[in-house]
Amino acid sequence: MKSVRYQLMSGVCFILMFTPFFLYCSAQIAAKVCSLSDEQQTAAPKAFAPFAAMVKGEPRCNNCHGAIDPFADNTIHLGGKMGVISVNGKIDGSATQRGQCEECHDQPWMVPAPAERFTNKNSIQLCRKMKEEFGQSSTAFLGHVRNDPFSLVAFEGTRGLNDYGRMVYEERRKAPYKIEHPKFTADELISQAQAWVDAMGGKFQGDADCGCVPHHYSLSIDIQSLQDSHVADSVVHMEMSGHVEIPLKFKDDGSFEQDASWTWTQSGYTHMRRMDCTFKGALIMKFHLQGTVDQDKGMLHMVSRSTTTGGEGTSTCSNGMGGTGAYPNLSSPQSYSWDLPSLVGVDQQIPMPYQDPPNFTSSMKVRIIQTD
Length: 372
Known about the structure:
The protein contains nine helices and eleven strands. α2 packs across α5, α2 packs antiparallel against α9 and α6 runs antiparallel to α9 (186-199). The chain is rod-shaped. It is α+β, with helices and mostly antiparallel strands. Helices cover 27% and strands 33% of the residues. The protein folds into two domains: 2-34 and 215-370, no CATH class; 38-199, no CATH class. A hairpin with a 2-residue loop joins β1 (85-87) and β2 (90-92). The strands form two sheets. Strands 3, 4, 5, 6, 7, 8, 9, 10 and 11 form a nine-stranded antiparallel sheet that branches. Strands 1-2 form a two-stranded antiparallel ribbon.
């Protein structure tokens, strides 16, 4: 039993030493972790909902973004149906139409593409679209709300009509042209847009869902190890495996800290001159993980602190020896730093090609799991 225990101790102490390593990531497209705290994940959608209601319910915003389609057969556009221009064999109903629009409008006008319409989107869909449209840049989003020329025209309430456009308006509406300002001011819209960004910690984070739909995550770790050693006429074979899922609960600054415990199973055999033994057992590890998310680089920077706290094992030998015994505390705490791409649902294969003890190989697979 002493020999068996020594082999188990050697393998466990070695496995704990996963220090700096190379990461091999899947090439598949994956979402980034949304490193918002529970409070932020609740506050951000609540802050966006009033903004969505403002732009979807206000004709000065909504008419341009889908309520009036000047290219539809049954359009209610006062200027009538606009022709559709083919560019390089593809129909384009947005930017290439500005020449037609300028007949009545005094801006370098263009109608947003169908994907940019507000009318066919609920608050969550519109939220995602805002993040996608502005390249995940809150600066670009806020700049559009504050300074985009079309936004400014909307608050002027003129519909961007020139003299000819106003004449067409009066003729077809059978009513005098009048300016209609939005129901809210530019400052109110900007304030609500800023409130959404502030609820996410002052900038866009994660993927398109982050700040629109709450998500939570855990860190899944699987370790597999194998040792085959031959010393004189003795052979030792040992296999170990462990699995744990550690919740990732973020704070407002994107940092996280979590304690966990997990069990590693071992099994193997020894062949010696006068005795053969088989053994199996389990070791219990305590694990403390803390770190931060680097949104710009798309990485989780982590520090792990681990220790094995005990366990038990059973051996059976050909000479009748063996038995079951409890393991004492097998290792002192060890701390190591490691980085992980902040991709969700992608297996990160982490080779651990150390050779101490001899003929020992081990690997670790890590995956960030979205739990809701």
